[in-house]
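Query structure, 428 tokens:
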């Protein structure tokens, strides 16, 4: 080649800054709607098990949304296995949670104390009037608690699967739509491959790999992933995975540990191996999108329920908030790009009841009338989880912001814990 000769690059050799990194683009609603209408929708085990935890009305709305897209549903064999592995324990936990035995015991004790006190201080008619009032109040409370429970006869469901209406509807939804399990030889190969991926922090699933009590050597998420790729490749359709798992081995997270989108590695692997697009969403966002796409009713209270189930359980009851801990959380929210949440929480903390009405949130956020407030508390949950991980907050604190409902439907507003209000009052 002489000095005068030049190598002129072909335009075919050039690309754009997003080539190979398309996963960093924000997924817009039209793309999600296309997957809902014509793609594959796979549900993680946690969403299926949560059907036992929902109230009767919330569960009915979730099933209505799922039944609107039956042709698209797919259950990986690993999800099926984990569902049956955990079903009985989840039902037993719900039975304990929904029990009103403690309230009934409190009624007996209160009635006994009142009877003892009444005989010493008032007439028989006045004492009876108070006893009737006490009995009526407890009856209303117990009725409301039972009405707000799961609405399932779970003892019967444990004894015989034929008496489990959740199973009946799931069986209808997933008839002919459950993947076949891997052969024992293939499973052995994949478990070994999963452990190798986890050693290199290749998603998904490495966050849970070494937790105690894991089955399949902790590779359950990876096995789900392999089955999703297998199904998407066979169908040649984009795939949407719905999970309330919010860990970094599935998601790209923002500074408040709030999911932005699937890990780019997962999007690229699905594209390379199956030739299709990969999407992810948390349950409340899936239900909101499905309600709009298929014109089914899913109330804001149901969406809030799915969001709250993602919170970490408090091991020994909630710890009280101090002013210092509360300020730490507010600072993180502001740093992470969620100043509106911090404003709402500050205002609620100064209210004697710890409450900010819905209309005030609209004013502070300059929201348009009629806008839903679905997911409003989610960044607070994520920020708390991140601060606990770094040691800036202790484990077991009561959720710092909760939606407040008087009835199913839209939230009346938002509340902060009583300990937050008290800590602010001590400062004034």
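Result returned for the query:
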């Amino acid at each position: 080649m002489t000095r005068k000769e030049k190598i002129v690059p072909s335009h075919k050799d050039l690309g754009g800054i997003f080539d190979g990194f398309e996963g960093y683009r924000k997924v817009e609603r039209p793309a999600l709607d296309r997957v809902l209408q014509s793609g594959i929708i796979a549900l993680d085990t946690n969403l299926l098990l949560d059907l036992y935890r929902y109230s009767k009305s919330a569960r009915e709305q979730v099933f209505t949304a799922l039944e609107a897209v039956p042709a698209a549903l797919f259950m990986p064999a690993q999800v099926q296995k984990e569902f049956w592995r955990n079903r009985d324990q989840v039902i037993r936990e719900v039975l304990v949670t929904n029990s009103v035995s403690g309230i009934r015991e409190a009624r007996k004790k209160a009635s006994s104390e009142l009877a003892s006190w009444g005989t010493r201080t008032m007439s028989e008619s006045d004492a009876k009037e108070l006893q009737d009032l006490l009995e009526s109040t407890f009856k209303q409370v117990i009725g409301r608690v039972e009405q707000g429970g799961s609405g399932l006869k779970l003892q019967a469901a444990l004894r015989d699967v034929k008496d489990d209406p959740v199973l009946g509807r799931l069986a209808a939804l997933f008839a002919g739509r459950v993947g076949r399990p891997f052969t024992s030889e293939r499973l052995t190969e994949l478990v070994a491959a999963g452990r190798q991926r986890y050693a290199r922090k290749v998603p998904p699933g490495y966050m849970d790999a070494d937790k105690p009590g894991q089955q399949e050597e902790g590779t359950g998420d990876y096995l789900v992933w392999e089955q999703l790729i297998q199904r998407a490749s066979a169908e040649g359709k984009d795939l949407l995975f719905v999970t309330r798992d919010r860990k970094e081995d599935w998601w790209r997270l923002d500074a408040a540990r709030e999911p932005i989108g699937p890990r780019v590695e997962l999007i690229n692997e699905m594209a390379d191996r199956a030739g299709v697009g990969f999407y992810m969403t948390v349950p409340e966002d899936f239900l909101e999108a499905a309600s709009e796409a298929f014109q089914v009713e899913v109330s804001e209270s149901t969406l809030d329920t799915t969001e709250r189930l993602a919170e970490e359980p408090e091991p020994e009851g909630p710890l009280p908030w101090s002013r210092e801990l509360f300020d730490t959380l507010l600072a993180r929210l502001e740093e992470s790009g969620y100043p509106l949440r911090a404003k709402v929480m500050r205002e609620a903390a100064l209210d004697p009841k710890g409450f900010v009405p819905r209309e005030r949130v609209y004013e502070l956020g300059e929201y348009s009338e009629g806008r839903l407030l679905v997911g409003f508390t989610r960044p607070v949950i994520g920020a708390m989880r991140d601060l606990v991980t770094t040691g800036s907050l202790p484990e077991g604190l009561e959720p710092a912001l909760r939606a407040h409902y008087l009835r199913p439907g839209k939230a009346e507003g938002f509340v902060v814990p009583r300990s937050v209000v008290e800590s602010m009052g001590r400062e004034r």
